Every structure is written in structure tokens, then in C-alpha cells.
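[Q] Does anyone have a clean C-alpha cell version of this?
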Amino acid sequence: MNPQNAAADPEVSCFLTANAGSGKTSTLVNRVARLLLRGAKPEHILCVTYTKAAAAEMQGRLYERLGGWAVAEDAALAEELRKIDENPDDLATARALFAKALETPGGLKIQTIHAFCEKLLRRFPLEAGLSPSFQVLDDLVARDLAQKALEGLLTLPEGAHRDHLIRTLKAQKFEQLLTQFIYQHDRIREALDHLLADAKRNDLSFSGYLFKRLDLDPPMTPEQVVDAFAEQLNWDMMPELARSLATVNTKGNQGLSETLLRLSEAHKGGEPFDFEALYAVFYTAKGEPRKELCSTKSTQADRDTLERWREPLAEAIEKRKAAETALNTLYTLQLFEDFSAIYQDLKRRTGALDFQDLISRAKRLLSGASMSQWVLFKMDGGLEHVLVDEGQDTSGDQWDIVKALTGDFFAGASAPVFQARIERTVFAVGDEKQSIYGFQGAKPDLFLGMRTYYQTLAKQAKKPFVVPQLVQSWRSLPQVLGFVDKAFDGPDLSEALNFTADPIIHDAGRSERSATVELWPPIYPLAVPDLDDSDDENVAPVDASGVAPAKRLAQQLAFHIAQDIRQGRSVICKSSRKARPMHAGDVLILVRKRDALFEHIIRELKQAGVPVSGADRLKLSDHIAFQDLRALMRVCLQAGDSLSLAAVLRSPLCDLSEDDLFTLTRVEKASLWQALNRLAEDNPRFSEAQNFIGWALSEAPQRTAFDFLGLVLNRRDGAGRTQRQRFVTRLGVECEDVLDETLNLALKGEGVGAIGLIDFLNLCEFNASEIKREQEEGGDRVRVMTVHGSKGLEAPWVVLPMAPGFKSTRNDDLLLTSDDGDLLLSARGRDGDPQAVSALKAVRSLREAKEGLRLFYVALTRARDRLTLCGYRGSRAANGPFPDWYDLAQDGFDRLPREAVTAVELDTVVEFGAPKDQESSEKAELLLFGERAPLMSAEAQAAQTQTGLPAFVTAAPTPDPEADVVWRAVSQLSDEDRADEDRAPSPLAEQRGQGRFGRGLKIHKLFEILPALPVADRDNVAARWLKRQPDLDDAQREEIRQAVMGVLTDARFADAFGPNSRPEVALAGQVGVNARGEAVFMSGRIDRLVIGPERVLVIDYKSNRPAPDTAEEAAADYQRQMAGYVALLRQIYPDKSVEAALLWTDGPKLTPLSEALVNLRLSEIRGH
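[A] Here you go.
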């Protein structure tokens, strides 16, 4: 029996450990299907998943499996049953399962633990002490309640502990502490409950228990520690200590000696002890021991004297730090209890539960002494098999619920009322190597502990229990898995991943061809230009930011991805297992966090013309579209808010330029709104902006925030475009999600009383909403996301760009918690942390470092065919217990057989740089393990593109004898026969190369992207874009750049690329009726459309050389094309004159078409 079938055996309980890509979801589906085949009722099976997406995928795959069985041929179905070790004669039973599952009341129980707990509490609300109509809070409402709880906390009349913390902590740290109360409430609550229970077991008050944990028994305040130290000082020896210091004849020591003498005199005079002064004698301002107290001139007696004073002082300092920590922790937890009480009270008043309440209430219901037996009795007849997915990420509370549900499965306590056809079972699948959600409470060692727990139960009950392991991966090719094994080779690395020193081993189930694993050399910072040595007086240090390592790495990646897509690098099709040309959707780029590198990658891919899906998560308040709408609402509340008004005017809402803003600000003795009103009469752009702002000011007072935003986004401008369309045109498709979420936030805000604009703005101040954009496999865009977001995904080509010296975002947490329930406040003072806090920090750092290794493992195992590892170096080096990711990758290559790794020259478009002590090399070499995937020929690419298409896709449609409509492309608008030399050839005549049309396509592309950029950036962007075109040489690149920039910098063409112009406008419609009575329709795409107040100008770019002097000398096809555009635009703008012109890059020159020429060509199109 293979491991998958052994794990799916419905007769035995099982804890399955599965490597990445080894088919754990298939095993889960097989097990549920086999349970149904053996007679288990669908409603008696519970499958708990980690996410809603996982639940939906598993349910879809199960229904697909059962549905396939329902319609399969006998022989095929029998073979399917045989493969999963079921009786091939049970055909009728297998076919009936699909209908049985569909007809199950409430459907199959494949759901998240939160969904299960919600249903459980709704079934037993009175037993759980809840209102039957309780509601579950979403994140927005929960955060709003938490914010109200903080406001209530700060207004409590009595708050000595609060006031102490405000005095002790800086304002920023106190605010940080309150933020932790909100976002780590459940973790703090769990640790605090553990401490309270431990204190009760030890028969101690909580304060006494806390001080004892810090070795302060009896409890002492910091002041009491200092007083005790002062009492045990040998004051008579103070002058001797001063003389010992004076023997080291330095200016500093003379001052310290004088300090000691002052302290001695003050003590004799009965003055209070100045502990800080004595501290300054032995320690620097940074809290470090002074090194210059003793020197070679000091006698041994002097050294002994100093040491006798230093040791008790060091002990006192440690005790004072511990006392401060204990006191601050006590006050913080008292403050937290106040916050928690207010927060819980707010939830009770609204009859609501948050997500953690669902877990804790369900756990209490199932585990409590009063009602648990009754609830389990009522549930027992309805639950026979429990399956847990992603066991390594299941938290302790969630496992407690599973234990309560399955405890009787092995004890047999409910046997008299339980009648099952097969043994009740528990099944869990997970991989401790993929536990990456520690910040959500997941503990990978808990999964192993639960395995031992159930093994013990099964052994005691003499019931079968298996622990198979799936090591064979069906996702990745052998070279990818071989590299993964080498990257984590070593007992320390293995222990961090799977908690044993046993080596990590993967077995590949695929072998279609060799994979590609490549390690690029790191990119280093470049030296800042020295102004004294530079020949260019304009070079300044700020220029160095343009060549930051992260940006250069993103440029290099974008170049290679674009090149491989363009050249047809092959990948293996997942379904057919055959080679096909890659496309953008085959690339998955994984980063550790959404930082500058993340943004650079998305930006550079767009610049390179590679389709990219954008960020996988967007923080709403950080997106410019949200900020623009927020600024508009501020203007509507206060028109004199010039800063917000300036933001609105520059936004897509008004689309004014920087020059326009400067013009407005030069108006004397006027606010920005007043200046806009004054200049609106003489400037159409200002007039349109003034109309929009005036309309918004009139609408806002009478609308809710949701209604107002809806009206704004659906309002049309003079060209007929909605404001939503203007946002998308300017900011990209991803802003659609931002606009939708803004409307959603406004609608949710009404549920918490944020109805008007000012309420909505207040809500926005504390809103931390994130938009999670699903990026499943199958699209045609490069996916860029964090490794956490990639869990469960895969791609033919995975790129892992690595930043140096990663630092955890949680290193600044003030409240530190540990796995064993410890909890202390870290408010580091001048003395530093006490040993207990330092120990907690060290434990946390090690825990996070191990999770970082598991995160690296998850990233590597997303790759199917190709894995590219790259990175850059910075000033911050890794200082954790393990190497950083790039060093781990380099170590992995070093462990591979030398003959299996080859060095290959890397085609570079940026400077890679070198370490400070080395010379930079012009050549860069990557390390290659495996083989490069071959490029596919043009013929093979074309064949693959057509492979598998149904016949109707390529078959000619059957003519309709009743049809009286003729559709024409813009180049086929005339019925007359024309000689080839009189026809403008199709721009698709040449696919590659610097031929006539290859050149034209590149010029068109630059005219499309450059006008949207700031004028100062256009030339640089054009040069970079052309440099990435592999079919051009330097001379050709320069010729095209000059041709394009010659047009864009020519004042004669300013209107063509001004704010009233739009690029790439699609157009379709009827241009007339031909001589046969058929309606003639045309479709095309206008290169540039200029819409003015009285006229419309349609422009088409032409790159022919030499350019004709007049439009009459141009090719007839060009003339007919422009005439067709004019005919359609006249219908759209009947009140404006419509003109057409050809813009020739050779010259450059603009040749307008006369009205007579347009009408002549229109008559030809219509056949008159």
C-alpha cells in the first residue's frame, strides 16, 4: 500500500506528515471519498481547514471527484476505485455519492475552525451564555470598538497605574503599548491568564508572584532597591576608593574621584543618596562599564578596591532593573485589564463576538464542567470523523476544541448511543517545515505533541493509528528538490525545520526534463560620486539614490523576465506535461515583506511592458486613490483647506498639472479656492476643475459618505468618462480594488454610526484595512507577493529576490510573551534590560529565526520547473543565529557536487558592483544547477498556441444570407482593388527586428507611455526601454529615441500631448451604407485623440521614411483610415468640428487632412 492510500484508509486514525507538493489535498479528498464509500454519512464528517480558500478548493475537488464517478464508464470507475484501494465492484454506491453529498442538509462540513465554532454557538447559544441573535464582528467594527475602549481607558477617573506608565514611558512607547493592546489582545490575554493561574497554584498574590519571577523576594520597588544598597555600602571606604581612582592620572578620573568625595561628604551631612552619581562613576552614559578606571599604573590593591565596589553596584543595578520591570509590567497588565473590561463590555452591549471569542467560547462550551457533557451528547450522534488540514498552523485553543470533539472516539464513553458502520477516526495532516504563522499563535511543535497525544489514546484503546509520511513531491522537478535538501543540510538547520537532526529528504515524482536552479551574484551599493573628482558639476550625492541596489535588482529581473517571455522560453504544461512557451502568468516573484524592493519590482515590470498583477495586499490608507478621495471630503468640509484642495486638483479628479498649481498660487491675496474661481473664466482646465469642486461642495452636505463617494466616482467629465475611469487610466487597474474597498468602508461605517463625511474621516484615521487581492494560478500576469501569501500556490518559474539583514517588525514590541506563558514589559532604560527580559528576547529571536528558515523553505518549494535566486547587499549584515537567505542559497550551491554546477555569464543591464575591498567587474556570472529550458522556435510557439483549441475557434463562420452588415478593419475600408505598392502594409507584416514595422511598433509604444510621465523623466525612460529591446543595436536605439523625443519636445505638438489628449482610444461604429445597401461598420484604435472645447483632433503616428510633405501624398489606406475615424467622431461630437492629421516622426511634421480629402475617402468607403 502506498503512503497516500495508507493515510486515506477510513478505518484507521492517522497523523500525516507531508512534504511540500506531495499531494496532501488529494489525500484529504481521497479519505473523505472513501469514508463516504464505506457508509459514513456526509453530515457526520467534519473537515477543518485553515482558510476559507482552502475549504472552497477542497470542497470543489471533492465534488469534482464524486461528480466524475457519477458519469464515468464502468471500467474507468472500477479502475478509479482500485487506485484508492476500494472495492471495484461498488460502482452503484460510488455513483450515488454525488447526489447524496448535494442533498446533505447544510452541505458537507468542510469549513474553517471559526465557521465551525460559529455554527456550534448558534446551535447552543443558551448553553454558551449568549444571545441567540449574536453577531460576529468583522475587522472594521472590532477595531472601532477597540478604539472606543482605548478612549474610555484614557478617561478613567482613577488610574495611578496609567499615570505612572505615562510618566515612565515616552509618548511614542506609550502609544505603541496601547496599539499592542488592540492587535495582540488575545495573545496578551492568554499569557496573563496563564500567569494568574500559576500565581493561584503557588498561593501568591499576582504582584508577589510577578516580583518573585524576577528574583525579587520579598517584592521591592526601585527606590527600595537603592535604599537597601545605600545601607550596605561601606561609606568609610569611599575616600579610599577616590584615591584609587586618582592614581590613574587622567582628567576624567580626577572628576570621578571628586564625585566620590562629594558623595562621602553628602552622606556625612545626612543628605539623600545620589545613586545616579555613583552609577556614573563606574558606567558610561550608554550603560557600559568604564574601561579607563584601571590602567597599568594602578596597583593590584587599587584594582581590588574598585572591583569590590563594582560588584555590589552591578547587583544593585540588576535588581533595580528587575524592580522597574516588575512594577511596570504589573501596571501595564492592570491597564490591560481595564482596557479588556471596557472592550468586553462594549461587545456585550452590541451582542457581538470577535473571531477570538468564537474560539474561546466554543472551547469553554466543549470543555467546561457544567454544559460540556450535554453538548457532546447532543453532538455525538452527528459527528463521527474529524479531519484537520494544516495541522502545523493550528493554535493551542483550536487543538483543545478538536480534542474535546474527539476525546470519546478513543474512550468509548458514548458507545451505547453511538451506532456507526465504521470506527470513528481522527485525521490530521501537516508539515512542521511549513509552519510560518507564529505571529497568529501557531506552534509547529504543538502538531508533533498532538500526534503523540493521539498515539497514546489509540494505544490505550487498542485502536489502529498510523503516522505515514509523504516525501514524494509531484510539484517540483528533481533539481529543485535536490537544491532544497542541500540548502538545509546540517543538524542545526534540520532541527529548525522539523525539530530533529535528521536530514531533510525529498523525492521527486516528476522527471519530464531537467529543472533550472540559478543563483545570481549579489548586487552591491555603488560609491557615491565624489564632487571634487567629477567632471560633471551637476552630479550630486542625491543622485546615488537612483542606483540603489534594490532598484537595480528590480531592473535586472524585469529585463530577464521580459526577455524570456519574448524569446519563448519553454515551461512544462501542468496538465499535458508537454513543453509550451512561457507567458507572464508562469512567473511568481516572492519577497519577504512589502518594502522598497517589492515596489521597485512592480514598477520595473510595468516599465518593461510585462503584465503584472500588482501588489497582493494593499493597505487602503497608503494608496493615493484613497488619499485623493479623503482630500476631497476634507475640502467639502472646509473649502479653505488649501493643502487638501491642491491634492484634489493634482489628482485624477481634476487632472491639473504642477504648472497649473503654480499659476494658481501666484494669484495675490487669495486662497487656492479663490484663485481657482478667479481664473476659471479664462482657462477651460480651471473651469472644469472649478465646476467639479463646486458640484462636490453642493452635494456633500446632503449626502452620506457612501452616497457621496458613489456620486463622485460615477460622475462623468466633458469627454464622457466617469471619475472611476479617470482613476484607472491614471493609476492603473489595481486602483479599482481600492475604490471598491473605499466604498465598502463607507458602507460598513454606516453600521458603526459613521454616516456623514466628518464621521467617515474620523473612521479613516484609525482604519488599517488591507485589500487582499487573490492571485491564483492561471492568469496571464506576473504575480508579486510575500512568501506568506504564496502558501498553497505554485508556479513554473519562481523568482526569489532577497534583501540583506532582515529585521523582524516585532522587535519593538513592549510586551514580550513566550511559549511557556511568560509575559514581561520591555521598557529599556539607561541601565538596559534585566536578565529575564533579555532571556525572553533571546528566546523570541531564536523562535523567529527558525520561522524565517521555514519561510525560506516554503518559498523554495513553490517552484515547479525553474528557481531563480538573487539578492543585493546593504550596509546591514545578518547577525542572527542562522545565515540570511542569500547565504543559505550560496551554501546550498557549495554543497552540490562541483561537476553539477556551472558558471554562466549573465546578460546584465545594470551594474552589479562589488564589496568595498574588491574591484567591480564588468562581467557577472550566475551559478547554474540543472539545465536552461530551451527556447521554442516561432513555428513551435505558433503550434502550441493553437494546440487543443476546438474546431469552431478556427473554422470560418457560416455566411448568413440575411446579413446586411459589413464589418471592416481600418485598413480595409474600400472595396476597390489596389496594387500592393499603393497599399499601406499591415504593421503585423514583420514580427521581429528593426524593419520598417518593427521600428514603427516601438515608436508607437513610446508615444503611448512617455506622455504620461513627467517631462524630465521621459528621455531617461525612453533610453532604458529601448536598451531592453534585444533586436536593436545602439545606433538604432539612438535613432528611435531621437525621433520620438523630437516630437515630444517640439512646441508645435504640445496640444497633441497635453492634458486634454488621450492615447490608444478604441473606436467602433457605423460609417455609412455601401452601394449594395449594406451597413458598413469599422473598428480601430486611435493613436492620439485631442478633445478641445470647440474641436476634436484625431492623430495617427506614422514612421515612414521619408515622410510626405502633405496628407494628399500619403498612402490611400492612411487617408481612408483617418476618414473613417472622422466619420465616427462626428457622430459622437456633433457640436464640434472634427479634424484629422498624420504625425510623421521623420521630420517631425504634422500633415492635416483637408475636409475635401476626408469626404472623398468617405465616399470610397461607402461605395458611392
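[Q] Thanks! Anything notable?
[A] The chain has five domains: 3-65+108-133+356-470, 139-350, 516-532+542-614+778-807+864-930, 618-772, 965-1166.
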